[in-house]
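Team,

Forwarding the record for the chain on the shared tracking sheet. I've put the sequence and predicted structure together so nobody has to dig through attachments.
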Amino acid sequence: MTDNLSISRRSANMRKIGSKNTAPEMRVRRLAFGMGYRYRLHSGKLPGKPDIVFLSRKKVIFIHGCFWHQHEACREGRTPNSNVGYWGPKLKRNVQRDSRAQEALRVQGWESLVIWECQTVDERKLRDILVSYLQL
């Protein structure tokens, strides 16, 4: 499969992708808030800057994009066929960084949950995930 965009255009598109307030993150935040849960966002004081922090529960949620964090169970989590010398190592570093952050949180006594982008599509299933994780 070849890319329909030029290298410079693809690069510009990829640079525009943000790490905060993404559509999947906003879906999780709206649902959690609507369920009565209160939280903090993007705490720089915690390893990995979790997307959502529940201080009183000592729990955090990371909302991971399937591509950027290589969701193995998802079609979007595959490595691109083009520019493999760049994407392979970059995506591998992302996964390693995620793992280190989650381990550091665990050592500090925090529980962490990863919600994948593809899991945010079905609101009912997402609600079940949140309830199961956040119940005391």
